[in-house]
Sequence to fold (196 residues):
Amino acid sequence: MAIIFFVLINTNYYWEVWLSYYSLLLFLLLGLVFLGLAIVTVQELYLLVKERFSDKKRLFQAGLLVFVLGTAAYQPFGLIDFDRFSGKKVLVAGREGGGDCTTMLKLFENHTFRERTACFGISVIKGSYELKGDSILFKDIEDRKKYYSYALIKPVDFPNKNIIAGLHLYQDKTDTTGQLLFITQNELSLLTGSSH
Fold:
């Protein structure tokens, strides 16, 4: 069970999108499995100490359980950052909404982007972008999902020192309100040779 738990945690990047709304249920189930494994680990460690570390099979099992639980506690979404395979992140923006809903948008150096939204399920939108003047234009959206057509970076007055600016996403030229995400990393100037 510990190995299956470890594999599921470390491959969630791939399966969370397929499950969509059911991914929340699987995450809750994985939380219960984590608690069950923690109880078993305490029992194994107790017996291991009681037997003065003489049972090599129990020593291996306890070591495996400690490793699996430790890595899951340290990196609950897996040890590997699969976004690294998309290249260097040049812009990261996100926002937490009501009901613990979160949106995270990452733009990569190779002119692709990935937006992950977790809100009673997981959805991911991928595509490409290009920089045109002060605009970020989104295109080639995977699965032809409707997405914002462009974004603008604007100053934002926010008390959090990690917030660099605001990324305002717009459906089209008639969209006057847009969607605001908070930028925590901006290295777009590396692509354009100017400062954003």
The CA atoms of residues 135 and 152 lie 5 Å apart.
